[in-house]
Amino acid sequence: MPCFAGLSKAPSVEVVEGKEQAAFEAASKLSANFVRVVQDITNAGPASIEGKALTQRNSLKRAAFSDWWYADRFLMQVACRLVGPATSSLQIADDALRRLDPDEARAWREAAEFLDKRVQSTQAACPGRAPDMSSDAAAAMKTVMTSLRSIAQDAISAAAVKGILPVNRRNNLAIAPAAHTTLSPTVSSAPANARRDATVVDVSSAISAAHMSADQAITELTGPARGFQKWLGSKKAAALLDSWNARMMASLNQKASLEACVRAHFGAYRPPPDCLGWMLGLSILAETLPLSLTISDAQVAGFPLVFVNKKFTDVTGYSKLECTGRNCRFLQGPATDPTHGQMLLDTLREGQGSQIMMVNYRKSGAVFENLLTMEYVRDSLGRRRFCIGLQVDLTGLESDSGPWGRRGLSSSSGREMIIEVRKKMATLVKLLPQSIPVEPPPSSPDDLDLSAIGDWSDPHLEALASATTQPMPACSGRTWCEVLQVLLAGTKAAAVVVDMSVPGLPVKFINQAFTNLTGYSADDVIGRNCRFLQCKATEAEPTAIMISAIRQHISCNVQMTNARKDGSHFINDLTLHPIHDSNGDCRYCVGLLADHSAAGSDTDLRETVHRSLPITFAASLQPRPPAIFVPTDALQQYADFQQKTAKMVRMLWSTDADGALRKILSLGRGLSDEAVRSLGGFLSDKKFQHDEALFVHVLSQVGAGWSPDAGKADEVDSS
Question: Considering the domain boundaries, does residue 177 fall inside one?
């Protein structure tokens, strides 16, 4: 049981001095056999939990099977008191215990009396059955149980004196936050209520729920055509997401709270102002998904990740900070088939969605097979804005006992799930918006106000003119970049200028030498990203180095295979040179190209030009172009897309119902509370009595310290 994961040798004051080891042994035995002990205490059948005839049926009085919840709580207190201070946060004070519901107090007393006779410490005590623990350990356990039995009796006596009828007051003694121990008013919250209300969970259903682990209960509850799956497709689930979205939008109506939410989900990245509402709505609900979702900015070189959800960090072991700003190819490694990566790259370059299964690596170094489904989201002007990735781990984690764990996926049913999920992902990704309505920019990026520039000079440009043996062009009436382009036009070194302030990094200028080398004219190139030079023979390593340098705004030199317009290949000896303005912003990047096979003159000329290129200029000499992304009302956009986003999220929940329920139960208390009420009310309204009992059982285990997400993350810390 996870609630005993912190077992320590610190003894309780109730344990005799010098018996620390005995107390630890007793607590360890109880922890290791916790579920079996609960089953034994509440076993109402003629056979033992192993299926054998009960030899002590008449001599040992067991608690009623409907008291399993109380037996569970009683045993937790026994173990906590044996362990001592290490579990003090889980212990209930004696004074509080004396106010126990008399029904629960009776069950505690009966459990203590049963175990007092049942626990065996010597072979002679019960021939034919191995001892449960040492004599000292048994004595330590019985000491604690005697104390708790006495307190339970006090609670029964106090209630009788006051004439209080047996009613359930379990929530007044909540061991864990009420989010996990209270259902909606229409759902049973304790076995005692079930006995008094025949419309709630019936007794036969409670037996099977009580005698299984929480993991088993979730697996059964989330199976095909079961209550949770039905709830996912119901109006109640839709209403839950609507309520979540409404609460979130209400909390973002102040600028400070909106900015804080953006930082929480996107870190240092600033979403473009015309898509902020949609991005926030998607990223917030993506944190509830049982599968990985990523967002890449298609307008930034290298398609960097700008958002990954919690499931992505669980699967890969990488933290959000380690992922943001990187292309997702960092998950690739030696075992990754390069043709798979190239296929993915080719389809994305063509502006198409894609789906591929490829080998990836977790941070721990472990290999896993990743089903990657990607789709572009465009704006109403036809621009590719974002690339959304849905990723499913087809290998699974060894620690995950659910259907998507390693053991589950290796089974025949697991293989069927993989086939089914491939079809589902290809369909569900189409639920992303076909386009996001945006306003066109008010003017062209070329419409600059040059009236304030006047006549000017720049010693850095003068040095470039001198090094390339050219006269210095007239500067009056020209921007700084226009003069730079005149100088580059006069050199025989192939050159290209990229505007780093414009998303997508379009080519702003090429010279005649570039056309001579590649065959591409200015009409072919201006406005496009330079990746058009890449081809199937382009090597991955220099490409990654180049992209990293562009992203970091630093110089680099690489040799890579590129393709001319006629399709012929050449080895491009490429140098990238970033240029910043006086405000520190990277404004341009100059690329100098040379055919590596033409050794000597081309390379020497390129080096001469490179050494003379400016690294900075006065910002006043190059006014910034008008913004190409026109801000929109973020909250209104959030509201406009919430229905479609919520529908996609619910359908993604259904691809892994087991993981979805675990994720929902692991959310922050406010969201989880509301989800518990919604699901609990649905199960009660629709008469899913057995599933209702299973859900109550799962909540009781969460309340006792069990973690729904246990085993769902890679062993490397992904916080």
Answer: no
Q: Is 451 exposed, middle or buried (0-12, 13-18, 19+ CB in 10 A)?
A: exposed
DSSP 285: H
Q: What domain range is 591 assigned to?
A: 459-621
- Integer Cα distance of 428 and 426 in angstroms: 6
Q: Tell me, what amino acid is at 310?
A: K
Instruction: Say if residue 565 is in the same domain as residue 463.
Output: yes
Residue 645 and residue 595 share a domain? no
Region 89-118: what's the mean pLDDT?
82
Q: Beta strand pairing status for 569-581 and 616-617? A: parallel
Q: Is residue 450 part of a domain?
A: no
User: Are residues 647 and 586 part of one domain?
Assistant: no
| 612 and 652 together in one domain | no
The top-scoring range by mean pLDDT among 98-107, 153-162, 534-543, 567-576 is 567-576
For residues 392 and 291, is the Cβ–Cβ distance under 8 A? yes
- The count of structural domains within the chain is 3
**CA pair distance 221, 223, nearest whole angstrom:** 6
Q: Are residues 245 and 335 in the same domain?
A: yes
Rounded Cα gap, residues 272 and 510, in angstroms? 29
Rounded Cα–Cα distance for residues 370 and 338 (Å): 14
Neighbours of 94 (CB within 10 A): 12
The C-alpha atoms of residue 692 and residue 206 are separated, in whole angstroms, by: 9
* CA distances in angstroms from 4 to 82, 223, 519, listed in the order given: 11, 29, 71
| Per-residue model confidence as pLDDT tens digits over 574-616 | 999 999 999 888 999 999 999 988 766 667 788 889 999 999 9
Q: What is the CATH number of the domain that holds 613?
A: 3.30.450.20
Query: What is the Cα gyration radius of the chain?
Result: 34
- How many Cβ atoms from other residues are within 10 Å of residue 524's Cβ? 15
Contact criterion met (CB below 8 Å) for 635 and 249:
yes
- pLDDT, tens only, 117-139: 888 777 665 666 678 888 888 99
Most confident of 268-272, 485-489, 504-508: 485-489
**Does a structural domain hold residue 565?**
yes
Decide which of 571, 589, 621 is a domain's last residue. 621
**CA quadruple 228, 37, 20, 174: dihedral, nearest 10:** 40
Cβ-Cβ contacts under 8 Å for 262 (sequence gap 6 or more) = 270, 271, 276, 280
3-state secondary structure at position 35? helix
Category of 463 on φ-ψ map: left (φ > 0), alpha (ψ -120 to 50) or beta: alpha
